[in-house]
Fold this protein.
Amino acid sequence: MLGADNEELSASLEDYLEAIFRLSCDGRQARSKAIAERLGVSRASVTGALRLLKKKGLANYKPYDGVTLTSAGHHAAAEVDRKHRILKSFFGQVLGVDPETARKAACRAEHTLGPSVIGRLLCFIEFVSRENAAGNDLVGKFQQFCNERAV
Amino acid sequence: MLGADNEELSASLEDYLEAIFRLSCDGRQARSKAIAERLGVSRASVTGALRLLKKKGLANYKPYDGVTLTSAGHHAAAEVDRKHRILKSFFGQVLGVDPETARKAACRAEHTLGPSVIGRLLCFIEFVSRENAAGNDLVGKFQQFCNERAV
DNA sequence: TGACAAAGTTAGGTGTGGCTAACTATAATG
DNA sequence: CATTATAGTTAGCCACACCTAACTTTGTCA
């Protein structure tokens, strides 16, 4: 592993990675200002994070030049994004939490859950939709159940 | 709100709170060494955390004397503990994740999920057990579903 | 009761992650 | 093309959360 600063990624760096990933979906470079706005953080903090991501080999960063992800960075970001989508979908579709709350909860939980739990969660979403297709409307029943106890 | 240092509790402080809560279940005071061991942290770190908890009005702490929780601290700790139990139960019982992985995931996620998601999760556990009692073995079906796709 | 071990604290250091204020580079435009 | 606005960086600060090493307090027991 030449020159790579391995270690686990902090939740904060994962957030930066994800922001860059999302902002550069259409191929363009992510602007520092946009990252700052998306994460609700100062531009100075972004500069610091970009330097770290570069040191870890996850981002191509040159001062006064845009940012893109290296392929390692892209991989890591895609994984965070995947977790995010699975969690949001679970909170929203299965548990029936309102979309904005689901999104925020996903943002926070995406850094804490490992592959085995995420894998099961994804599977569970599929299971629920499969049951639904087979005529067993679990989501509906659960909503009903919640309404009865006013949760 | 006299003298209270409000703000949100950090994940770390919640961990300390929870450890004290658990260690003083039987009414005794929590010893600093035991907290350090339970959290895998140095005794010095515990001292620092206890000072913070005291400042926030959550722990009764006097150097060289044991620690107990104030009623505010007890409330907060009980809430963290409740989240922990709900999450562990969901990961283990519903998703079928192995107990140790479920415990660890709960430890990490308990700081990130708010009341609405936790409430729904608790409700979901009840829903599943109710369905089971009514002859709809969702857990079994889901396990089967996972096995088929080797998750 | 006095010495020793264990528990606890203090002092001082590290890394992360954030901030503001002030500076510099780039871009846009009259 | 000079000026100005905006984007980005640097410098310097703070808080948190951890650590080790050294010191102090407490409790035990010969």
Remarks:
- The longest helix of chain A spans residues 71-94.
